[in-house]
Amino acid sequence: MPVVGKLISxxxxxxxxxxxxxSARVQAEDTVGARADRCVILLHGLFRSSxxxxxxxWFLDRDGYTTVNLSYPSLLHPIPELAEDVITNSxxxxxxxxxxxxxxxxxxxxxxxxxxxxxxxPIQGMQRAVMLGPPNGGSQVAxxxxxxxxxxxxEPMAIRQLGTGEESIPRSLGPVEFELGxxxxxxxxxxxxxxxxxxxxxxxxxxxxAVVPGMLDFLQMPVxxxxxxxxxxxxxxxxxxLEYGTFEREM
Length: 251
Fold this sequence. Notes:
Keywords: Hydrolase, Signal. Residues 1-28 form the signal peptide. InterPro entries: AB_hydrolase_fold. This is Alpha/beta hydrolase. The radius of gyration is 17 Å and the shape is globular. The chain has a six-stranded parallel β-sheet, sandwiched between helices. It is 38% helix and 14% strand. The protein is of the alpha/beta class and 251 residues long. α5 (109-120) links the parallel β3 (101-107) and β4. It starts with a helix and ends in a 7-residue tail after the last helix. It has one domain: 3-Layer(aba) Sandwich (Rossmann fold), CATH 3.40.50.
């Protein structure tokens, strides 16, 4: 990555943190109290950690939700194992804090973990979920790099399982049966990088790949895959969907 690109990437998170703190809203005590029994589980994407979703977590904390934001080893285990471990532990944490109404906010792979977990066992108290840049139809990027022989020995299993071929877990899962809103980035029409989408996308996941049958709402925003989770307008839409079950169209 060029030096300028690295610098931008390093500065993006601190800038996002300051933006969230600067835009914090004062919540009425009755509203905060009413949301305290609603737990929002945040699930980061591949190659990330819980730190990447800290600004989103603080935003939701200020809205009065109980939040759980755990890291999981996305590079070490297959998707079913990742889903079972991190979501079971997150649910246990929600319940220990007295919050039994369950919601999710996910980025990329995190959304597939929720679909995988829900396909195996019901999530008691499940309310709503917002997925940011989820490869719900499988990922062209993952399929491309998963097919390169010399990378097969070192690539995480989750990458192969995110593809579009026979091993694709997203494509093996059925329609969602919970209230779901999907936010997809459409900031790029194409990219010159091999294997990446040559159609409207967030630079990694195309608009078409983000769609899943059964979702309640779908919102395209001018954001990229890496930075959408730190965008204040995206955060606003996340909070709006969790509250109303739809995205706000007039902002």
